[in-house]
Amino acid sequence: MQGTPTFNHQADLVNSAIRFINSWFKQSKSITNELNNFFILPENKIIGKDVIISRLKGIFGQSDEYVGGRYDIIDVNFELLSDEKGIGFVEGVAGYRDVIQKQSKIVSGPFKLYFALQSGEWKIVNIEFPGFVY
Questions:
Q1: Is the torsion defined by CA of 110, 116, 117, 121 positive or negative?
Q2: What single-letter DSSP state applies at residue 31?
Q3: What pLDDT does residue 1 have?
Q4: What are phi and psi of 77, to 5 degrees?
Q5: DSSP codes, 80-107
Q6: How many of the other CB atoms lie within 10 Å of CB of 86?
Q7: Domain ranges (residues) in the chain
Q8: Could you tell me which of 30, 9, 25 has the C-alpha nearest to residue 89?
Q9: What are the φ and ψ backbone dihedral angles of 111, each rounded to 5 degrees?
Q10: Distance CA 8, CA 13 (A)
């Protein structure tokens, strides 16, 4: 049975992922609240939050709206490290209709949001999400 600290971390990760996903569906600027100051990509490539924000604005700017967003969270996992730091992820599937000039296409697939725990907050450090590309 999980103890209270474990449950709180898991709940924090899930809540942060839900806020990110809901902000994605609304194409909301509040999506940036869930992002870390830097992102860690494969092959140890590091990019700043400002690059991610620009990319999100570019992706959102291509569409009129997203409709009918749905998601299912399938797994949540984390590991606490020393000095109150940690790593974790939330994964599942998501889908929505991307509407462009009154035409729509379904965008769907698996997602995985990677998190780092610093200063008591879980922040996203890498995004794999339907419709998002670096």
A1: negative
A2: G
A3: 39
A4: -145, 145
A5: E-STT-EEEEEEEEEEEEEEETTEEEEE
A6: 17
A7: 4-128
A8: 9
A9: -135, 155
A10: 9
The pLDDT assigned to 6 comes to: 54
List the structure tokens of 54.
């620009």
d(CA 57, CA 70): 21
Is there a contact between 113 and 94 (Cβ–Cβ < 8 Å)? no
Q: CATH class for domain 4-128?
A: alpha beta
User: Residue 92 carries which side chain, given as an amino acid letter?
Assistant: G
Instruction: Provide CB contacts within 8 A for 60, sequence distance 6+.
Output: 27
Output the pLDDT for position 68.
Answer: 95
Tens-digit pLDDT string for the chain (134 aa): 344 455 589 999 999 999 999 999 999 999 999 999 999 998 889 999 999 999 999 999 999 999 999 999 999 999 999 878 999 999 999 999 999 998 999 999 999 999 999 888 999 999 999 999 99
Do residues 122 and 115 lie in contact, with contact meaning Cβ atoms separated by under 8 Å?
yes
Q: Which residues neighbour 50 within 8 Å (Cβ) at sequence distance 6 or greater? A: none
Closest CA to 9 of 76, 92, 108, 94: 76
Structure tokens that stand for 16 in this block = 């942060």
